[in-house]
Write a structure and sequence with these properties.
The complex is a heterodimer. Helix content of chain A is 0%, strand content 45%. Chain A is globular. Chain A has strands at residues 5-7, 10-13, 19-24, 31-37, 44-50, 65-69, 75-79, 88-95, 105-106, 110-114. Chain A is mostly beta strands. Chain B has no helices and eleven strands. In chain B, strands 2, 4, 5, 9, 10 and 11 form a six-stranded mixed beta sheet that branches. Chain B has a five-stranded antiparallel beta sheet with strand order 1-3-8-7-6, with no helix packed on it. Chain B is an all-beta fold. Classes of the chains: A mainly beta, B mainly beta.
Amino acid sequence: GAGVSQSPSNKVTEKGKDVELRCDPISGHTALYWYRQSLGQGLEFLIYFQGNSAPDKSGLPSDRFSAERTGGSVSTLTIQRTQQEDSAVYLCASSLEGTGHYGYTFGSGTRLTVV
Amino acid sequence: GENVEQHPSTLSVQEGDSAVIKCTYSDSASNYFPWYKQELGKRPQLIIDIRSNVGEKKDQRIAVTLNKTAKHFSLHITETQPEDSAVYFCAASEYSGAGSYQLTFGKGTKLSVIP
């Protein structure tokens, strides 16, 4: 597609429920990133996928968080047993990797509210 | 790993004045430095970037300078307008091996342009 698509745009869930957030990157972009942004805060790195390499999961805050990327395209971020502190905007970004670095293109994010 | 410090965290300027945001980085191997603008409730968007083989880049009212020796780079906005009000993030690219690059972001600067 023309841009990075994320769904849903908004998600309200009850504490303890599981949620799945979806990211559809720009076609041909081999790198995909997930970030979390709490209200008024910066960009917290969560996980990074690059081609067929093992993902860099170093930013995941707990084992309740996991992500997968199927077929090198669409990615799903799953949060199990959600807690109120998980409330934030979850941003996905993709990038064209090559011999050097290129800027990220961000999606519009999923605003997650845990009540 | 890379560490990026960004200052100031908030900045208020009168319309028409200039604004300068500064960032420092720790990894001398970093070679790509983008800047993102995030308007309230919207996604971060790339506004300008610079690579390590140049010292300055301009695009209309915005410019970025890079001092590799001192490991710092700056964003300059001239003739500021109310629509420049946003949060600005700097970033530095870190090579993480196997053709993979990741951006490390600063914590952001909230710029307010007062009409």
